[in-house]
Amino acid sequence: MAASPSCISLVVLVALATVASAQLSPTFYSASCPGALAAIKSGVTAAVSSDPRMGASLLRLHFHDCFVQGCDASVLLSGNEQNAGPNAGPNAGPNAGPTRQ
């Protein structure tokens, strides 16, 4: 049974609406943590000022954490957290290991 053009159009419209509403937002933390963006910016600016290679290092770190094998945010974990519970043993994710300095 062939689908009518209006049904196909409706499915495409719903799919596009879903994708459009799932975008990242720079104001995501504006209500729950209003100072987050300023704190992150000042911290990164200070780190890059003290070591010019830090910008490239952060970009590489987050690329490999998020895009290579999926975001698991393990760069945010300390060494104790990476080796605890579900992050240890055979179920360990790709970034389980020593704390990044």
Automatic annotation (TrEMBL):
Signal peptide (UniProt feature, chain positions): 1-22
Region (Disordered): 82-101
Alphabetical list of InterPro entries matching this protein: Haem_peroxidase, Haem_peroxidase_sf, Peroxidase_pln, Peroxidases_AS
Cofactor binding note from Swiss-Prot or TrEMBL: Binds 2 calcium ions per subunit.
Catalysed transformations (reactions): 2 a phenolic donor + H2O2 = 2 a phenolic radical donor + 2 H2O
SUPFAM superfamilies the record matches: Heme-dependent peroxidases (SSF48113)
Active site per UniProt: 64
Alphabetized Pfam families for the sequence: peroxidase
GO MF term set: heme binding; lactoperoxidase activity; metal ion binding
All copies of domain Plant heme peroxidase family profile, residue ranges: 23-101
GO biological process terms held by the UniProt record: hydrogen peroxide catabolic process; response to oxidative stress
Biased composition (Low complexity): 83-101
Residues annotated as site: Transition state stabilizer: 60
Cofactors demanded by this protein: Ca(2+); heme b
Chain sites annotated for binding Ca(2+): 65, 68, 70, 72, 74
Keyword annotations of the record: Calcium, Disulfide bond, Heme, Hydrogen peroxide, Iron, Metal-binding, Oxidoreductase, Peroxidase, Signal
Disulphide bonds in the chain: 66-71
Family to which the UniProt record says this protein belongs: Belongs to the peroxidase family.
Protein name: Plant heme peroxidase family profile domain-containing protein
Organism: Triticum aestivum
